[in-house]
Fold this sequence. Notes:
The chain is 29% helix and 0% strand. It is mostly helical. It has one domain (2-42).
Amino acid sequence: MPEKYYGPGKQLDSYHLQLFGVLPEYQRKGYGTALVKFVENRVHSPLSIDIYIYISSL
């Protein structure tokens, strides 16, 4: 997606996932873990990237 906005070959140095959630009826079934792993794999880079996760039980 960065290429669409910034041109060919452009890599972002950081990513920000504002908010995601899992509906109560799908919780405790691995969907949240799968979402986080997808994001981790998507931003994987040879550079060192920190991923911070804040959780809430709301």
